């Protein structure tokens, strides 16, 4: 029975990956870069956009939430069957790192996200003077996370640095867990 279920999920090649983060973190630009679109024409996200990208045949759902804090409460409606969470951080935004930590740790308390692994993208690494991954790891208190498997990678939506590596980590990790079902 277990092997039938496993095969069904693998055959569907369905993997739900949610990409979230504060506004201005670079989520839209990351998606554009992954899809080889022009990254210089990103307009601010006003509201709530969902994009699906196919990566190695898997479906990745990208949640792009605008600046309004009130919208963040709606994230929870879409947590069902999430395999991985990508949390995008603006590595140049020291001011909101505390805010960013609160939002992330709040998310990790969600029961429906319990099985999901977490990739933290420290974005905008191309900007001189941006925070290092160690700064962000400390600021977000990642070492305190014991409920989820996690990793952090610096990346740049502008240059494309580490975007593929990040998605590879997510897909490989989720695949391994699907085999355990
Ligand atoms: P969001 O979807 O998370 O809200 P956006 O964020 O993708 O709209 O990006 C917000 C701003 O950050 C944009 O600049 C975008 O060009 C910039 N940005 C995103 N990723 C990077 C990156 O890796 N490096 C640099 N240098 N800038 C990045 P504007 O000026 O349009 O607000």
UniProtKB/TrEMBL annotation:
It comes from the Eukaryota. It is found in: Cell membrane; Cytoplasm. One of its GO terms (cellular component) is cytoplasm. Transmembrane segments: none annotated. GO terms for molecular function: GTP binding; GTPase activity; metal ion binding. Gene3D superfamilies: P-loop containing nucleotide triphosphate hydrolases. Its main location: membrane. This is Abnormal eversion of vulva protein 20. It comes from Orbilia javanica.
């Amino acid at each position: 029975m277990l092997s039938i279920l496993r095969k069904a999920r693998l055959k569907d090649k369905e993997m739900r990956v949610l990409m979230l983060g504060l506004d201005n973190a670079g989520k839209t630009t990351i998606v554009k870069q992954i899809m080889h679109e022009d990254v210089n024409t990103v307009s601010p996200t006003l509201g709530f956009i969902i994009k699906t990208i196919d990566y190695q045949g898997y479906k990745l759902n990208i949640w792009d939430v605008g600046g309004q804090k009130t919208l963040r409460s709606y994230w929870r409606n879409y947590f069902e069957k999430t395999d991985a969470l990508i949390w995008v951080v603006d590595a140049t935004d020291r001011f909101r790192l505390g805010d960013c930590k609160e939002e992330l740790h709040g998310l990790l308390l969600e029961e429906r996200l319990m099985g999901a692994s977490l990739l933290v993208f420290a974005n905008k690494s191309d900007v001189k003077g941006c925070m290092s991954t160690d700064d962000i790891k400390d600021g977000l208190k990642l070492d305190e996370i014991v409920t989820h498997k996690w990793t952090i990678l610096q990346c740049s939506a502008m240059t494309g640095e580490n975007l593929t590596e990040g998605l590879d980590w997510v897909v490989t990790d989720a695949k391994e867990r699907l085999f355990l079902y």
